[in-house]
Amino acid sequence: MLDGLDPDSAETDWDRVHFVGIGGVGMSGIARIMLARGARVSGSDARESQQTAGLRALGASVRVGHDAAQLGEARTVVVSNAIDEANPEIREARRLGLPVLHRATALASVMAGRRAVAVTGTVGKTSTTAMLTTTVRGCGLDPSFAIGGVLNATRSNAHHGDDPLFIAEADESDSSFLLLSPDAAVITNIGAEDHLDAHGGAKEYARAFTRFVDRLPPGGIVVLGTDDPRVSRLAAHARERVRVRTYGESPDADLRVSDIAVSPEGSTYRALLDGVPLDRVRIGVPGAHMALNSAAALLMATELGLPADRAIGAIATYRGVGRRFEFKGEAADVRVYDDYANYPTKVRAQLRAARLVTRGGRLIVAFQPSLFSSAQRFAAEFGAALGLADEVVVLDVSTARERPVTGVTGELVAERVPLAAGRVHFVPDRSAVAPALAALAGPGDLVLTMGSGDVTLVGPELLALLGAHGRS
Q1: 263, 295, 315 - which closes a domain
Q2: Residue 334: beta bridge partners?
Q3: How many other C-beta atoms can be found within 10 angstroms of the C-beta atom of residue 418?
């Protein structure tokens, strides 16, 4: 169990910090900001990555592998839920009596003293955080930001800015967003089926969002996705203490979205702000869900005092974030994309968006269940969502965050995909996935790899195979 100490506690030394799992996208972003502020940062991870290499170039001491001796002179240790208590660095920190803190507490520490905006929700929080960051930067401000993905425009997931504003993605999956105390917040949606393993049930999961809203100060701001009835129900409660603003396709939304048009080049829509028509909004990524995410970012930008017309111009420059329908390349007339979607609602939303940009070719998806618990609990829901594709390859469950569960494999999901025989393939050997996709894909097809595990490595492998076939 993490200590969860107050980030302003005198017992916490944020000048010498060690991150266990420093290569994680959330952890590396916090470490990057601490480095920019002059802290001595060290860390370890199971493997080398672009994030570990980037942090090392900025001055962090980063090691591959875990060893108690790597704590060095650290006075505070930061971990995420992906790190087991049996980790030798955690055990050593406990022995030495060092604070062992959740990464959300570290995030709260770097947000302290700033005008903080936290973006959360079951689906869309990474893209919405990235869109809001892009919009604010495009309007001439230099905010600090921490995003759970790499912003394509900056090739970074975090930044220490000169402006008092701090924009952060807040993780609701394990309730760690309740360690934050933002001045303003965005809640995109509240899924009925997601993250129940950590919360115990749908009611408890929804209640966490109410508690999050209660952390806003009197007179704070919350932007709510009113198309989601669970989010909409928060409005009455929130209005007792804070300013509530809503967005969505609902007729009574403060920022009403209509006439959404999606193409391979992106998405556009009409917007009414408090009944006043705005210029047509354009973003450089496809998908109705992405259009709604941008509406959340646009509305929060106006609440931060930015003119709507300038914000619309700025958001048009958004070109996506890593692993959110990220284009990986094209070979042999096959386009390959990668996406982080790891819960049924996310899989459905992204496959619907992908279908709109297939250009007449087939949609082929390679999906890796991220958790044994979710594969077991939501096999039918995953299967139904994957049925939106034309061909499906299911990998075995990622082993990064949970110990294996007897009898639970990716085959549970594959068996529940409602496609004809021969169009669903269970490929438990990860090294065999790219060859299987290369055999399936033909000219004009779109291949999408999905999941939060090492399925992300399949896209480049597939492109290399397709390129080699094209040269033979």
Answers
A1: 315
A2: 331
A3: 11
Evaluate whether 414 touches 442 at the Cβ level (below 8 Å). Answer: no
Express each pLDDT in 317-351 by its tens digit.
Answer: 999 998 889 999 999 999 999 999 988 988 998 99
Q: What Å distances lie between residue 360 and 143, 194, 212, 424, 446, CA to CA? A: 41, 32, 44, 20, 10
Q: Exactly one of 125, 188, 246, 409 is catalytic; name it.
A: 125
Average pLDDT on 394-401 reads 85
In contact, 126 and 324? CB cutoff 8 Å:
yes
One-letter amino acid at 96 equals: L
Q: Which of 50-59, 190-199, 392-401 reaches the highest mean pLDDT?
A: 50-59
Between CA 296 and CA 290 the distance in angstroms is 10
431 to each of 198, 448, 452, 454, how far by Cα in Å? 31, 17, 17, 11
Residue 398 has pLDDT above 90, yes or no: no
pLDDT at 356: 87
The answer as to whether 21 is a domain residue is: yes
CA–CA gap between residue 202 and residue 113 (Å, rounded)? 34
Total domain count for the chain?
A: 3
Provide, rounded to the nearest whole percent, the portion of the chain with pLDDT above 90. 78
Does residue 9 lie within any of the structural domains? no
Of the candidates 52, 122, 126, 449, the residue annotated as catalytic is: 126
pLDDT of 66 > 90? The answer is: yes
- Residue where a domain terminates, one of 290, 315, 340: 315
- 126 as an active site residue: the answer is yes
Asked if residue 346 and residue 293 are part of one domain, the reply reads no
Domain that holds residue 34: 16-103
For residue 393, the model assigns a pLDDT of 98
Dihedral of alpha carbons 347, 352, 356, 359, sign: positive
Q: Provide the CATH number for the domain around residue 118.
A: 3.40.1190.10
pLDDT in tens, 27-40: 999 999 999 999 99
Name the amino acid, one letter, at 206.
A
Residue 163, classed as helix, strand or coil, is: coil
Q: Are 461 and 328 in contact (CB under 8 A)?
A: no
**Would you call 302 a catalytic residue per the annotation?**
no
User: 92 an active-site residue?
Assistant: no
